[in-house]
Amino acid sequence: MIERLRKLTVEAIAAVCKNKEFNLDFIPEFSIEQPKEDEYGDFSTNAAMVLTKKLKIQPILIANALVDHFPDKEKFFKKIEVVKPGFINFFLSDSFFHESLQKMSSWTIPSSSVEKNSSEKILLEFVSANPTGPLNVVNARAAAVGDTLAKLFNAVGLRADREFYVNDEGTQIEHLAYSVQSRYLQLTGSEIPQGYKMHGIFWIPADWSLEKSEDLYQGEYLIELAEKIRDGFRTPLFRDEGIRVYGNEIFSPERIHFLEAGFGNKLFEIIPSEKERIKFLGCVSVIYNVNLQKEVLKRFRLEFQNWFFQSQLGEKVSQSIEQLKKNGHVYEQDGAVWFRSTAFQDDKDRVLIRQDGTPTYFAVDIAYHAYKKERGYDKLIDFLGPDHHGYIARTKAAVQALGFPPDSIEIYLIQLVTLLSGGKPLRMSKRAGEFITMNELLDDVGIDAARWYFLVRHRDTHLDFDLDLAKLQSEENPLYYTQYAYARICSLMQTAEGEGIKLLSADAVDLSQLQHQAEKGLIKKMAQFPSLVEMAADLREPNHLPRYAVELARTFHSFYTECRVLGVPDRKLTDARLFLVSVCRQILKSTLDLMGIEAPEKM
């Protein structure tokens, strides 16, 4: 319906241009919206207001000219009026409503009526949590936003793949290994190894400062991993003859190559020096935590096409730096190698290679993004945590410096989540082990509620997640209210079927029976669905979906109160209204499907 009005408006603009009243080289974007008050029509457009910027003509004159050239006015409109300063209000004919409803019955997801059919390949990278422990609620929010955006892209005909980046190298993995080693020693009652000292619950190298030990992980979730290491390997970690491992349940098959790459072709014999032991524990811990992350994401109805490990980059880090050098964006200073990112509007230049010859995390990140492009992706979209704001400008600068278009990468932040219980916030600290895991949240509120409430606010807005509201089974809970609308329609249609009333096809049903304002109101609300899907995809804002779902549910409940579907004397009216609610059910389900939320037939 909205797209049809847009096409008719474009035809009117073209007709005026053909008559040489306007001189336009292109038609700018304009909106078609539903006014809040019925007195302003069924829909309204700002086309004349937009065109006045190009034509330098008063919008009221442009609007009047457009109205004079609208095609098939008698067929599609009861009337078209112009109001100051230049809005065009459409009062639709009954036949326009009925024909639009027929077309809505054929809408499907993924393939809405606004399909783009683009060959552009998009790579969405999101969550990408460090493999140092379980996923938390901020990770869960990123999972809901990224997955829903991927579904929106697919719905409008774009190809979008999901990727999870595993940062499995560096200092944090070393700290994880020392943390797990301490838990292992606690469980086995082993003596403190030579060259170590005790600090709190940790056994740390004697040459470490006490401040450095503050970076270790205290969470009790590491105890289970330490237990698996204790029970799963043939010899203890602290034995002269070394560690021999020939397979273990904590290794997923696809990660065996990682172990082999790290320790040679044998799986494997390790000299139990501190360096090799810590390398081994870091490797095992990464595999274990990644497997746990995969399990909870699958539970959350999310599976990534790609799991990419930093350790897979290999020589690509040095290759990307060489490319930057060839492009003239690298220089040396104070014994370090620098990227001249200020040439691309970054606030300062960035170090690529430290004085000790090791690459920075940023250098690795450049190589990772270069490899994304190497794999054939046209558009890169990254979702980062709230503490990564400084990475946006430098990463965009690096992509441009490598020779790729500025608009080939988009980076967005996912803001923090505060869990509320009894109106009070729950405190969370990951390093101290005092945090609500994603699994615990799903146990508490369920998958549907978690997905819904992570989507209700804009991704760049802090989210207060009310656990009590999420579990409430009443109209106060918008998710329950929306799902109840779907279940109510299912119940209604099951009752009709039990009474021998079959749902007629779009060609067989007499939609001219639909004359009530509540019926037309429901059709208008349903008509917003394709343009809303396109807008949410274009703006990268999945938060529009739960808002629309609630509005559609509210409009249906209002219709159901005013218009009886079953038990009316006129069978043709029953058939028409049953067809109407069946289309509403279809669109409600499509909206919930896009959010990864179930549409229950009974509640």
Could you please describe the fold and organization of this structure?
With 603 residues, this protein is of the alpha/beta class. Among the domains are: 2-92, 2-Layer Sandwich (Gyrase A, domain 2), CATH 3.30.1360; 171-303, no CATH class; 478-594, Isoleucyl-tRNA Synthetase, Domain 1 (Orthogonal Bundle), CATH 1.10.730.10. Helix content is 46%, strand content 13%. It contains 21 helices and 19 strands. The chain has helices at residues 2-18, 47-55, 59-68, 73-76, 94-104, 137-155, 171-188, 221-232, 256-263, 274-299, 316-326, 361-374, 391-401, 438-445, 447-455, 467-470, 478-498, 517-527, 529-539, 544-562, 571-594; strands at residues 32-33, 43-45, 77-83, 87-92, 121-125, 159-166, 196-199, 202-205, 243-244, 269-270, 306-309, 330-333, 336-339, 350-353, 379-384, 409-413, 417-421, 424-425, 463-466. The strands form six sheets. A five-stranded parallel sheet has the order 11-6-5-15-16, sandwiched between helices. It has a four-stranded antiparallel sheet with strand order 1-2-4-3. A three-stranded antiparallel sheet has the order 12-13-14. A hairpin with a 2-residue loop joins strand 12 (330-333) and strand 13 (336-339). Helix 18 runs antiparallel to helix 20 (544-562). The chain is globular, with a radius of gyration of 30 Å. Mean pLDDT is 88; it is low at 110-115 and 241-268.
